[in-house]
Amino acid sequence: MIAARLEESLEDSPVVLVQGPRQCGKTTLARAVGEARGYGYRTFDDPVTLASAQADPVAFLDALPERVVLDEVQRAPELFLRVKWLVDRDRRAGRFLLTGSSNVLLLPALADSLAGRMEIVRLHPLAQCELASQGSGFLEALFAGRFAHEGGPRLAGELVERVVAGGYPPALARPTPARRRRWYRDYVEALVQRDVQDLARIAHLEALPRLLAAAAAGTARLVNVTTLGADLGLSRPTLREYLTLLARLFLVEELPAWSTNRLTRLVKTPKLHLGDTGIAAALAGHDAESLAADRGAFGFLLESFVHNELRKLASAHDAPIAFHHFRDKDGVEVDLVLEQGGRLVAGVEVKASATVTERDFAGLRKLAGATGKRFSCGVLLYDGDRVATFGERLLAVPIRALWEEQVRRGG
Questions:
Q1: Options 3.40.50.1820, 3.40.190.10, 3.40.50.300, 1.10.3210.10; which CATH number does 3-122 get?
Q2: Which of 17, 126, 280, 330 is buried most, with the most CB atoms less than 10 Å from its CB?
Q3: Parallel, antiparallel, or unpaired for β 333-340 and 321-327?
């Protein structure tokens, strides 16, 4: 679902950057699109190519083909100013197709150097609908406030298995769950040993795996920098720096709190989500059997799973969608608040069980009251077998509707 957006971007943007975590398919996508369009290809994972670019960025870029894919460009930030200069001289669309495993939006100097010249396409690990080779109309149905999902049997153990499997293609290609978990652990170790050191010189490299393990165990919870720093023996500034570093590598994401002047006593602390629940489960020591037996841990991982699925769907959505969470000081909360184009607001609550009660909609009702006519729909995703109405624009929806195509018939 991202390939079409990438093709479209190359038609009117001089520079297009495909960014996302390593091993999520960026290189495969960029090379396939580039080869079809006659692009050259260079990768900065090749030490000779990297050394050449670092030694003389001007000569390196001037010797390239007219249109080129530059893979893992975050390893050669020296090139960005020269790319800017070349684009300002010749603004033809599609000159540079870049890939990066570090979020340039968290590096203002690099992002600003190509402001107005570069479009960013975010690539995630595989979504559940992509694994099923079908589309998803969930976001359209959510903002329309109408679902016509036909339901089906509970997922039960299959849902747990989907959560622990994650979405990275090389992990999913492994023949057994144990081999997948090994791949995820090795993947994190490789990132810490290679990419982290490319991005920053840090004093306590050994603290990063412990921080990531703590984040995995605490995914979908409010970020408590003081407590987390004390547990790891890190100061608040150092911990904040390390969390930003992990976010740059797309390993974690902070979900900001939603706010409105119509409500007071709102919690303003962000939530922390692991970028992939396969990584989270592996680092927390969970397999499908242990997670199924620990319903509390499964509930938090399922919330991160839904957050990540919705992020993947939003990356291919036409209208921009902002993500938040909502919580007040009485503990009334909504797991995910989605705002489309600054106008429509929808809420998504996640529940791991197959039963739903009126009380489960307390947060969604409060969000609806605070947003008034902007409120499109409040959905409680659960492991049930049918759509059920719990009031005006409030619905319980089977979680499988996230990736099953028939949801498009809603409305």
A1: 3.40.50.300
A2: 280
A3: antiparallel
